[in-house]
Amino acid sequence: MAKPRVFDQLRTTLQSMNSMRPQGNPLAVDFGVSALRVLRVSSGDPASIQSAAQLKTPDDLLDNPAKRILFQFDALPKLIKSGKMTGLRAACVIPTQQMSCKHLQISPVPGVSMNDLAAGQMCDRLGCDPSALIVRSFEVGPSKQSNKQEVICFGASKSFVGRMMDAIKRAKLEPVGIHNAFETLLQVAPKAEHQQGASLLIDLGSACTIVMIVHKGKMVFARTIEHGAISFDQAICKQFRCSVMEARAMRERINEIAAVTSGVQQSANPHPSMDDPDISEPIEILIDEINMCLRYHRATLPDVSIQNAYFVGGMAGHKAISEHLARVLNLETRVVDPLSTLGRAGKVPVSGVDLSKPQPGWATTVGCALSPTDL
Fold first, then answer.
1. Which long-range contacts (CB under 8 A, 24 or more apart) does 146-149 make?
2. Which of 204, 200, 201, 364 has its CA nearest to residue 286?
3. Which CATH class is domain 1-98+158-190+337-375?
4. pLDDT tens per residue, range 210-238
5. Domain coordinates in residue numbering, the chain
């Protein structure tokens, strides 16, 4: 029985030595859909930005995940150099498109961990070999609908995670952390320890939208909606038979809530022009999906009410869309700029990003930089 204690003491000693290394926090690498982002922060409280770099995804790769990730893997070493990054360690975020997120209700089995039970169910649902999947689970608590445990389960391809680690190593970095977007978003969610109710966190991304409900710092609901900014742009492309770049420019020019809903838009202007795209359909789809999430939460945790909502992600900066969502949700809402919560000591080396403007799209990157290493 003494052996494990010796190993525990050794691991604790090594972790202490590691925390004393001068390089501080590892680089955070985020293989996002709209951009590849790299961030380095200090290890203070609060942490300070030491360097930041971003490489936007070419338009022709936005809806091609396989080619986009290869492009980003190849571009990573040069981006690190352009941002004048230092350090030998790195943590990265698994792209949301490469992950499965499911709520499971599991009956405990004596002698078997809940994570192993969740992994087995996850593999059954996905129809894959357990050896091919990396699974992490978070216990929510007893379900009100049954006597089972409500568990949030995340799964990612082991081979894809291996490719990510190889890309980190090719950039001459040591991989020390592999995180999913949900875990990183927990790090940037505004703290509300004294709040009785829960907070709704919505990441309005390019290819998808992440919906999370956090109660007293704990994740109690998580889901990925396969609907994001690209869906809005595709709707505009169909209306005007234009390119994705033109559609994105039109979406970004919408600066009034009246332009979001077709009924209000038509009453204001019965003859829409090139400056008046109708995005009522994609936003109604998004609202319907979010309402499904809220109904599931109410059914499983009826005693935990939602008090407020926070928006992050690139499309959170779109005033008309975020304000329309806030009005429909009927909650006190706020757009969060995670970079603004970090300190800045003097002039910060940056590449491809303007730190003088709000950057809600950097939420998962900042969360990755603040997450504990897990490898």
1. 146/105, 147/107, 148/105, 148/106, 148/107, 149/105, 149/106, 149/107, 149/108, 149/114
2. 204
3. alpha beta
4. 999 999 889 999 999 999 999 999 999 99
5. 1-98+158-190+337-375, 194-335
Quick check: bond before 46 cis, omega within 30?
Answer: yes
316, 204 contact by CB (below 8 A) = yes
Locate 40 and state its tokens.
Answer: 């380095």
Q: Which residues pair with 179 in a beta bridge?
A: 93
pLDDT above 70 (res 6): no
The SS3 call for residue 306 is strand
Homologous superfamily of domain range 194-335: ATPase, nucleotide binding domain (3.30.420.40)
Are 221 and 236 in contact by the 8 Å Cβ rule? The answer is no
Helix H or strand E encompassing 328: helix 319-329
Over the stretch 139-158, which tens digit does the pLDDT of each residue have? Answer: 999 887 778 999 999 999 99
Work out the average pLDDT over 60-77.
95
List all residues 6 or more positions away from 7 whose beta carbon is below 8 Å from its beta carbon. none
**Can you tell me the distance from the alpha carbon of 14 to that of 255, in angstroms, rounded to the nearest whole number?**
53
Eight-state DSSP code of residue 272: -
For residue 8 the two structure tokens come to 């525990």
